[in-house]
Amino acid sequence: MPLFRAEERRAIESLARLADCNPFSPAFVQGERAILGPDHTPAGAVWSLRTEPGAENSALARIGVVAERAARGARDHLLRRRIASPDELRLYAAVVIFTLYQRYADSLHEIHLDPERARRRVPRYRSFRRDLDHFLPAERLPLPQRVDAAHLFACFYQVRRAFHLIHRHIVGASAPAARLRAAVWESIFTHDMGRYWRLLHDRMHDVTTLITGPSGTGKELVARAIGLSRYIPFDAERETFTATLDGAFHALNVSALSPTLVESELFGHRKGAFTGAVQDRIGWLEACPPFGAVLLDEVGEIDAAIQVKLLRVLQTREFSRIGETTPRAFQGKLIAATNRDLAAEMRAGRFREDLYYRLCSDLIVTPSLQEQLREAPGELRNLVVFVCERVVGAEGAAELADEVLACVEHDLGTDYAWPGNVRELEQCVRNVLVRKEYRPPAAPQRAPAGDLAAALGEGSLTAEELLRRYCTLAYARTGSYQETARRLELDRRTVKRHVDPELLARLKDSSAAPS
């Protein structure tokens, strides 16, 4: 007789898949739906689209109840029979682990929020150990793989911490924001969480993350979420975590410092190594703890000589302070960020190809605010409310948000491009708070042909929009429907139907403007 009935097994298999699934991905919602069936009421196509930090997922809470019931029933059945296939034991262990995570997630979240508690003994570990022994007694069950309690507890702590940090640092209810959260989760755990727990949890510092995207899109916040979400082992004898998050993340903005200062900040220096070096200095690579991370912001502007030294760090995990030859080990994770086109920088000879290919083993692209609003126009209100809460607190956020949105509509228009991205939106909120207006610096008007090229690069045009714009652009050059049709190899009537009068007027105005 099998351990699980056919219907029960389908639900448990879905639970096992859910436990290994990226919680910020559409697949997670599909997994919830497979388990709850008609009782599933998600907040949206991707439940992580919610903007409230720490928002509860009611579907996940109900799944936790289903998992615990299944775990209890399977345990009783298993201990009576003491016979199960390896696959049945694997599914049973997955359901137990899911159940225990749901049971202890809140306690681990409290430790994350209070650094002092992370330094002390964790009383809940003993309870966790008892629960684990209750459901997975190693001496009574022939488990396919031994479950180490301390490692599992550390894994739970990392998952809860990463989930909170991603929600805290990456806000937004647009699909691009949701995709960014999913990408950050994969940067921390990879796409295969089972393999991560078995083999990679103590090796991910060897994987360098490169974050690219326009200025003002939160690259440092993404780096912070990744850097503070690393695996921290748990000491079962002392019943405490082996490290805290104090000093675990440091951001160095390369563009704000001279090459000498960048080198000193990064590698450290020996007393007398250069003018002004009056004492030994520890650099951030040396100060970074084993479970920490260093962000090199604006890495595209780093000096050529430092690029060589940085390449050595990535190749050997070793470096030397300025003025000495003693090798020192870098034990943390390196994260780099830039708004520059590194491919163009390499073609121009300003950025080393070998360094780029060491940096890009994990690549994340942060979306512009315009991209987010294009896919979800209503997202502007959500983001404005979020920024207002940070500026004036929750009590006055709604009132200030209404003022900001009214000023945006009156002064900028609903199609404003927000070239400064979220950073500009934050300053807009502060401007409205102080002066009840926001007047951005006049941006140079891009020619319609440039608009078309930019849209092509972004891949944001439908086939119909592309034909309309290109027919209009070609007609503006030729002034003839027949010649335009010949050049584009289209029917004359098709060209005439797709020429946009408004866009044609803009093209004529731009060509008539003085140079």
Name the features:
two-stranded antiparallel ribbon; 57% helix; 515 residues; Rossmann fold; 4 domains; five-stranded parallel β-sheet; alpha/beta; 11 strands; globular; 24 helices
Please explain how this structure is put together:
- With 515 residues, the chain is α/β, with parallel strands linked by helices.
- The protein has 4 domains: 6-168, no CATH class; 220-365, Rossmann fold (3-Layer(aba) Sandwich); 369-435; 448-512.
- Helix content is 57%, strand content 7%.
- It contains 24 helices and 11 strands.
- The chain has helices spanning 6-19, 26-36, 58-81, 86-113, 115-119, 124-135, 149-169, 175-189, 193-200, 219-227, 259-267, 284-287, 304-316, 342-347, 353-359, 369-375, 379-392, 394-412, 421-435, 448-458, 463-478, 481-488, 492-498, 501-512; strands at 209-212, 234-235, 240-241, 249-253, 268-269, 281-282, 293-297, 318-319, 328-329, 333-338, 362-365.
- The strands form 4 sheets. It has a 5-stranded parallel beta sheet with strand order 4-7-10-1-11, with helices on both faces. Strands 2-3 form a two-stranded antiparallel ribbon.
- The protein starts with 5 loop residues before the first helix and ends with a helix.
